[in-house]
Amino acid sequence: MESVQAIKQRFGIIGNDSKLNRALEKAIQVSPTDISVLVTGESGVGKESVPKIIHQLSHRKHGKYIAVNCGAIPEGTIDSELFGHEKGAFTGATQTRSGYFEVADGGTIFLDEVGELPLTTQVRLLRVLENGEFIKVGSSKVQKTDVRIVAATNINMFEAIKKEKFREDLYYRLSTVEINLPALRERKDDIHLLFRKFASDFALKYKMPTVRLTEDAVSLLLKYRWNGNIRQLRNVAEQISVLEQNRTINGTALQQYLPNAGSSLPAVINTTKSESDFSSEREILYKVLFDMKSDLNDLKKLTMELMKKGSVSDVQKEHEHLIQKIYGEEEQEDIKTETVVEDLEVLSIPEHTETTENSVEVEDKYHFAEEIEEEETLSLHDKELELIKKSLERHHGKRKLAAAELGISERTLYRKIKQYDL
Ligand SMILES: Nc1ncnc2c1ncn2[C@@H]1O[C@H](COP(=O)(O)OP(=O)(O)OP(=O)(O)O)[C@@H](O)[C@H]1O
Ligand SMILES: [Mg+2]
């Protein structure tokens, strides 16, 4: 059996993290069998190497290896792509065609983005997994195939099952063995190593001296969230290698290439979907809006208290925590020095309008949250939709070019097109 180190070398996998090593060990162990494997992990963690390793180390290595991106094939044609079709099965089916499961007989099929498979295709897939049987679209003849399946996903499959988008029986059948690849932020020791490797590769490619990072740049590199994982790190290394004149990169220079690094915006943690696409920007905006809403509610509460009690120092004592929350420590100091001077005269409110603390808060929160959420969702959606439309127009409907312009993956663009019914 080949060692983990040898496999890393053979497949160009960089890193020494124990979770990565464990995942590779699992791949090596499972490869001689025909067991179905599900590779999980965030986007860009390197899932695509695992099925290649499994195939190459298996007795199927001389057979076909077919990688299918389930998320990129339109729903209407996926059954025919996977299982083939008979002549005349649908308009345009002028000839009988073999699907991947027939072609890969004796080999391995990698089903990438398996969570995107339509439910009807999932039924067909379950049958192949259970007894190797499938039927071409438009045929009634049962055919046999001997294919090993490795699938991958970056979505939370339990969520998909809960939402009835993925069959539970198929999930268990696919994930006899699950191999999870760690996110880059969980492999701190590998981050700089990977950067150095990419920087040196790009220096060779572009025939320029290798870029190096100063200490503060390295510490920024380690602190950053890397939502796009190794794919994002590789892109950053490439951009810096090409664009930076000065080959020594400090923290400030590096920061330009890291979206949201050093920004005061709160980091939004998203475990299920981590591409740097429009949705994460939208989530950050939501978070900021909700924080603002919460501050406003706290301010309303303080104002109400001031109006009721009429004494600034009383309110200050009673709501020290709240004041600190809204103004932070520095500003709180300012407030103290200004207001301690004397208890200012404040408005008093008539008896009959007095409300309890709770009811004021609950009522306000509700109206405000609803309004903001709806308005913002609408305008952000419109904006996104408009951007996508314009980009598609500019590129005469060519998704690849539009996706590149928008800075999102082709798959994400495809999903958006479906979502907006473009
Ligand atoms: N350990 C590694 N060493 C070197 N390069 C790596 C490593 N892991 C990933 N990469 C590179 O990072 C990029 C992204 O990897 P890959 O395409 O396998 O991601 P993925 O997990 O399939 O993501 P997605 O879910 O978005 O499809 C590729 O260019 C790959 O070669
Ligand atoms: Mg992939």
Quaternary status of these chains? single chain
Helical segment count = 18
Query: How much helix is in the residues?
Result: 40-55%
Shape: globular
Order of helices and strands: HHEHEHHEHEEEHHEHEHHEHHHHHHH
Structural class: alpha/beta
Number of strands: 9
Q: Could you report the average pLDDT, rounded to the nearest whole number?
A: 82
Distance from first to last alpha carbon: 51 Å
Percentage of residues in strands: 5-15%
- Radius of gyration of CA atoms, rounded to a whole number: 28 Å
Strand line-up across the major sheet: 2-3-6-1-7
* Structure ligands: adenosine-5'-triphosphate, magnesium ion
Largest beta-sheet characterization: 5 strands, parallel
Regions with pLDDT < 50 over 5+ consecutive residues? 264-279, 329-378
In short:
The protein has 422 residues and is α/β, with parallel strands linked by helices. Helices cover 55% and strands 8% of the residues.
Description:
The structure is a single chain. The protein has 422 residues and is α/β, with parallel strands linked by helices. Helices cover 55% and strands 8% of the residues. The protein has helices spanning 4-11, 18-30, 49-56, 75-83, 100-103, 119-131, 157-162, 168-174, 188-206, 215-223, 229-243, 251-255, 278-309, 312-318, 320-339, 357-394, 399-406, 410-420, and strands spanning 37-40, 65-69, 108-112, 133-135, 142-144, 148-153, 177-180, 212-213, 248-249. A five-stranded parallel β-sheet has the order 2-3-6-1-7, with helices on one face. Strands 4-5 form a two-stranded antiparallel ribbon. A hairpin with a 6-residue loop joins strand 4 (133-135) and strand 5 (142-144). Helix 2 packs parallel to helix 3 (49-56) and helix 13 (278-309) packs across helix 15. Residues 264-279 and 329-378 have low confidence and may be disordered. The site of magnesium ion has 3 residues, from loops.
